[in-house]
Automatic annotation (TrEMBL):
Residues 19-242 form the Ubiquitin-like protease family profile domain. It comes from the Eukaryota. The keyword Cell cycle does not apply. Keywords: Hydrolase, Membrane, Protease, Transmembrane, Transmembrane helix. PANTHER family: CYSTEINE PROTEINASES SUPERFAMILY PROTEIN-RELATED, CYSTEINE PROTEINASES SUPERFAMILY PROTEIN-RELATED-RELATED. One of its GO terms (molecular function) is cysteine-type peptidase activity. PROSITE patterns: ULP_PROTEASE. The chain crosses the membrane at residues 6-22. Pfam families: Peptidase_C48. Gene3D superfamilies: Adenoviral Proteinase, Chain A (3.40.395.10). It comes from Cannabis sativa (Hemp). GO terms for biological process: proteolysis. This is Ubiquitin-like protease family profile domain-containing protein. Belongs to the peptidase C48 family.
Length: 293
């Protein structure tokens, strides 16, 4: 009986140890998770090692912070490239929340068009004024949107082709139910953006009024599918494949993509820290000039 009880205790200890090792929130010892000083990534500072752990290891959901930083560097890459292959810009997670909140109010008020004004935050995004490295949309061919399906706890990618007036939906967890929910999540963009475009002369062609019909939402088929909680990595990679004008492969090595992103961001942060490098858009704002007269 003693041997049986001892075996049970040992087995229980092993199981608990394994569970702790796989507890993704308890990777680092207490007090050992901090990055001091924090890594500066332009749009946000990263102060914990867990940020990199969540980015590097498959099966972990990426956060708003991860996607905002990744998409900032994507649009920075496009804006400052000597010969960009694609004219594009991106938005951020706040844009998604802002346009969804406006859409809810728009529908609740029976499609009240007075809600759509040139002073709204969405209009500032379109002008290229709302984000670091933002570009005016009328100078771009494509705009990438980070879209979070809250009821599904799932990220998808939206890509607006401005010339075609068509929005492409990239979903790494494609089923009839998920695709229906994903298309629904794209509706605020498809319905509201034509009205915002009508506010700006830059989107008019041959002095004709901008068409107010909703953008067509098209599902992109043949995409690799996730098997775990890796949708954020798929979203980032789908955008990067398009920007680099590369075909998205049917077989997707998510571990490889996560490793690459984590290593690139860590090396870049360390380089900035060691060499005291800040690009112009990331540097602290200069104070007002003193009047010496």
């Amino acid at each position: 009986m003693f041997i049986v009880n001892l075996f049970s205790v040992v087995l229980h200890t092993i199981v608990v140890t394994v569970l702790l090792l796989h507890d993704k929130e308890k990777v680092y010892l207490k007090g050992k998770d901090k990055i001091v000083p924090p890594f500066r990534f332009g749009v946000e500072d990263v102060a914990t090692k867990m940020w990199f752990h969540k980015l590097a290891y498959p099966g972990q959901c990426l956060t708003n912070s991860h996607l905002d930083i990744i998409f900032y560097y994507l649009r920075k890459k496009g804006k400052y490239a000597k010969e960009p292959k694609v004219k594009f810009t991106t938005t951020d997670c706040l844009f998604f929340k802002t346009i969804h909140a406006l859409y809810e109010k728009f529908i609740a008020q029976k499609k009240n068009l007075s809600l759509i004004t040139a002073q709204h935050a969405i209009a500032d995004y379109i002008r290229g004024r709302k984000m670091l490295c933002g570009s005016p949309w009328h100078l771009c061919d494509h705009v990438f949107f980070i879209i979070h399906m809250e009821t599904e706890s799932h990220w998808i990618l939206g890509r607006l082709n401005i010339e075609e007036r068509r929005m492409y939906m990239y979903n790494s967890l494609s089923t009839a139910m998920k695709d229906s929910a994903a298309i629904k999540a794209c509706q605020p963009f498809a319905v509201l953006l034509p009205h915002f475009f009508a506010l700006f002369d830059e989107f008019k062609k041959e002095n004709k009024p901008v068409c107010l019909d909703p953008f067509e939402v098209v599902k992109v088929d043949g995409l690799p599918q996730q098997t775990s909680n890796d949708c954020g990595c798929f979203v980032a990679s789908f955008a990067e494949y398009f920007i680099d004008m590369k075909l998205i492969p049917p077989i997707f090595d998510v571990e490889k993509h996560r490793d690459r992103l984590a290593v690139l961001f860590y090396k870049y942060a360390r380089m900035k820290e060691v060499e005291f490098i800040d690009s112009e858009d990331e540097a602290p704002p200069k104070g007002p000039k003193k009047n010496l007269s």
